[in-house]
Specification:
mainly alpha; about 90 residues; single chain
Length: about 90
């Protein structure tokens, strides 16, 4: 599959991800309209965003600058094949 390089299509893809996430959150809150559901949904969203940042920015910038990830699958493969330093 060819990489997406068109700035317009990249922006459209980002907008579609935002709309999909917003619609999913809204439907979940409509099904269970409680403060607890809203709070847990917010924490889950924040946590997954931080994990994504960790997987692609922190690892690539500070742990192994030579490795380039192509997705979360490649990140999992990276974690499984790299020997872990016991001193770290």
């Amino acid at each position: 599959m060819k990489n997406l390089t068109s700035p317009g299509w990249i922006k459209a893809k980002g907008i579609l991800f935002f709309l999909l996430g917003s619609l999913s959150a809204a439907l979940l809150l409509l099904q269970h309209p409680t403060w607890q559901t809203a709070f847990l949904l917010g924490i889950a969203n924040w946590s997954f965003c931080r994990f994504y940042y960790f997987a692609f920015y922190v690892i690539g910038r500070y742990v192994d600058p030579s490795f380039r990830f192509t997705g979360l699958g490649s990140f999992v493969k990276y974690l499984m094949r790299i020997p872990h330093d016991p001193k770290a």
